[in-house]
């Protein structure tokens, strides 16, 4: 049996590879798991109750409308309109089975094999994987030491084959929030060059500043070149229910629906009901989780301030710490393996997000308890 070269040449999921190491552990000490970028805590009680009630309804197992439940599209458009002080229509919202699927259907609608796309390094690995799977040549923009990309530098990498630029803010894996003026600069670049700017806003609720992350929706022609991607998984702790969204113009939604029809037809109804319950009834809970995770970040930064074991936080935000390890004599993969087997700490290697080994690790502090952050520094301090 022969397989596609594009698939065979892709790396396996770094999450799966990291978790495979857990099975090799012989220590009895509990594992500190900083690998996942998804909530490990349960959703609000009102969301759980709605999930249970929806499961008993006659429509529970039926296909919802392909673009999404009308009530969810309207509620999310209202949520965005309030958050961005803009006028966003429900017709501009397409509900997908998670934000990963949102990116995939949009990227596939925008590109053909042989086209080019620009990602900002360090990049979210699934974005890179999907584009390569589609036969798209990926260019990576080095944002420099502050990890904030420059639109002028990006323009030098664009060619007549470039079809899209993708920003992730706050970033995965770095946690860095891109300033709104920089996002606007990329929007201007996309408009001038006639290409799409995709802004992945999965972690938009977990920024330090709770005002609008940008003012892109203020421009009357925003939907000609701007596509915003969202996740309900992070806001309402429902990652397994797979619910995300594309926000864009009629063209991108129409073309994305063709692809969605071939892979999932529509996002699961139960997940949509959960997201709708969150939007309508769990906004205070949502803000409480944002505040709690912000406190965890503060504790993480304070605890890591003395660089235990030589591990240095380069950037942080949202769920993540982007951390440089101290061993120039080891590959990052070897460091990750030693952390798991010898120190009972599970992290993701930075090589999942970069084209070369920069001695970086992604640590998802958001899924730890306060006492576990203190324990983390003890274990890192023992690293040899």
Automatic annotation (TrEMBL):
Keywords: Aminotransferase, Pyridoxal phosphate, Transferase. Residues 31-379 form the Aminotransferase class I/classII large domain. InterPro entries: Aminotransferase_I/II_large, AspAT/PAT-like, PyrdxlP-dep_Trfase, PyrdxlP-dep_Trfase_major. Its cofactor is pyridoxal 5'-phosphate. SUPFAM superfamilies: PLP-dependent transferases. One of its GO terms (biological process) is amino acid metabolic process. One of its GO terms (molecular function) is pyridoxal phosphate binding. Belongs to the class-I pyridoxal-phosphate-dependent aminotransferase family. This is Aminotransferase class I/classII large domain-containing protein. It comes from marine metagenome. The lineage of its organism: unclassified sequences, metagenomes, ecological metagenomes.
């Amino acid at each position: 049996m022969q397989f596609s070269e594009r698939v065979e040449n892709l790396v396996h999921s770094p999450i799966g590879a990291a978790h495979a190491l857990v099975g090799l552990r012989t220590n009895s000490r509990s594992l500190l798991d900083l690998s996942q970028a998804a909530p490990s805590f349960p959703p609000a009680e009102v969301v759980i109750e709605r999930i249970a009630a929806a499961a008993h309804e006659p429509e529970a197992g039926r296909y919802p409308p392909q673009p999404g439940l009308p009530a969810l599209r309207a509620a999310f458009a209202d949520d965005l309109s309030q958050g961005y002080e803009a006028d966003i229509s429900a017709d501009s919202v397409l509900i997908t089975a998670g934000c990963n699927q949102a990116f995939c259907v949009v990227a596939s609608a925008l590109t053909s094999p042989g086209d080019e796309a620009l990602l900002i390094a360090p990049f979210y690995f699934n974005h890179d994987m999907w584009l390569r799977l589609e036969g798209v040549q990926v260019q990576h923009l080095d944002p420099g030491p502050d990890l904030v990309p420059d639109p002028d530098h990006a323009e030098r990498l664009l060619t007549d084959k470039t079809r899209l630029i993708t920003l992730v803010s706050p970033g995965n894996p770095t946690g860095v929030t891109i300033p709104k003026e920089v996002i606007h600069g990329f929007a201007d670049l996309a408009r001038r060059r006639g290409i799409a700017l995709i802004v992945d806003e999965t972690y938009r609720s977990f920024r330090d500043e709770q005002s609008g992350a940008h003012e892109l929706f203020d421009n009357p022609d925003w939907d000609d070149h701007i596509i915003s991607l969202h996740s309900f998984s992070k806001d309402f702790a429902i990652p397994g229910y797979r619910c995300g969204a594309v926000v864009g113009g009629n063209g991108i939604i129409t073309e994305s629906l063709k692809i969605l029809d071939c892979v999932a037809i529509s996002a699961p109804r139960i997940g949509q009901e959960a997201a709708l319950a969150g939007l309508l009834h769990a906004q205070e809970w949502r803000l409480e989780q944002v505040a709690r995770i912000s406190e965890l970040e503060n504790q993480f930064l304070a605890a890591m301030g003395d660089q235990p074991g030589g591990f240095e936080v380069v950037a942080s935000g949202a769920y993540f710490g982007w951390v440089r390890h101290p061993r120039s004599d080891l590959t990052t993969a070897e460091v990750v393996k030693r952390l798991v087997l010898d120190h009972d700490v599970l992290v993701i290697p930075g090589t999942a997000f970069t084209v070369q080994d920069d001695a970086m690790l992604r640590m998802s502090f958001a899924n730890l308890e306060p006492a576990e952050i203190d324990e983390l520094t003890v274990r890192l301090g023992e690293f040899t």
